[in-house]
Amino acid sequence: MGWLLLSAFCSIAIANLLKLYQKKDSKSPIIVIFLGNYLFAAIFSFMLVAPLPDRITLKEIVSGFVFGILFITSFLAYQRNIRINGISLSVSIMRLSLLIPVVLAAVFFKESLNLLNYLGIALVLVVFLLMGKQKDRANLYWLLFLFISVGFAESGMKVYKSFSLNSDAFFLLIVFTSATVIALLLCLIQKKRIINKYLLWGIILGIPNQLTALLFMKSLDSIPSIIAYPTLAGGVVIGSIATDTFFWKSRFKRKDFVVLLAILLGVLLINTR
Q: How far apart are CA 125 and CA 128, in angstroms?
């Protein structure tokens, strides 16, 4: 259980680091920070994969590049949502976006869903209806964009597994290398100076970003996935609400708590195996 708790802690740390960076320097070039994050992730992934496999297909390269674009797009949407919608709601919607790979797996890979999964899907629709009544339209659009971009980015591993010759770690190497190149190109296009301080902030961000997945996989050695998945998802949502409340002094209305509670229940139901 310790590995699982550490994985949840690292996931919560990512959101809080993004919030901290905004507070410390509201004009910090986020794309430079993301460059440092993905550069660290690419180097770390290379260390896990090395030496490179003998056979690499064009389909693997193309899919890795496409999902690299989705990864950096979803991370930018995540950072934007934390700025305008707060940590609790942004993290909760990101966790709720697991609905997309679950549905895609059922439709395209013929994986079965249980009754609790269907109840979770129905609850997701209720959540967005509730938010539509109380959120500004612009803010709701950003939440929907986060939901969609993260959901499709998270679908990458399942798609890759359906045709790949190589390991999941190699896929992540392609994804993170692609995201690094894209971030660098955006820096050049936007004429952002690559300042060492912001690059270092990105590397610091990359540490919990990498550890979240590694520690979760480690926890699966001793905890059944039927327990691990909903525990991680629920723990991250609850932990994010706690840090938002006690660390960032956010104030929630009764309607906000109703939405967050519905999201938490939806996350748990969708993650039930």
A: 5
Instruction: Determine contact, residues 233/240, Cβ cutoff 8 Å.
Output: no
Per-domain boundaries in the chain: 2-270
In the prediction, which pLDDT does 132 show? 65
Residue 228 Cα distances to 60, 66, 71, 193, 272, angstroms: 29, 29, 24, 42, 9
Q: Sign of the C-alpha dihedral, residues 171, 174, 180, 181?
A: negative
User: Mind listing the pLDDT tens digit for each residue in 143-192?
Assistant: 999 999 999 988 887 788 777 778 778 888 899 999 999 999 999 999 99
Torsion of CA 247, 250, 253, 258, to 10 degrees: -50
Query: Quick one: which of 206, 199, 165 has its CA closest to 59?
Result: 165
- d(C-alpha 186, C-alpha 146), whole Å: 20
Report the interhelical angle of 225-246 vs 87-96 (nearest 10°). 160
Is residue 135 over pLDDT 60? no
Can you tell me the distance from the alpha carbon of 148 to that of 272, in angstroms, rounded to the nearest whole number?
A: 21
Using only C-alpha atoms, what is the Rg of the chain? 18
Distance set, CA 188 to CA 95, 179, 191, 254 (Å): 32, 14, 5, 45
> CB under 8 Å to 180, separation ≥6 — which residues?
35, 38, 39, 41, 42
**Do 70 and 242 contact (CB within 8 A), yes or no?**
no
Non-local (6+) Cβ contacts of 60 within 8 A are 160, 163, 164, 165, 166, 170, 171, 174
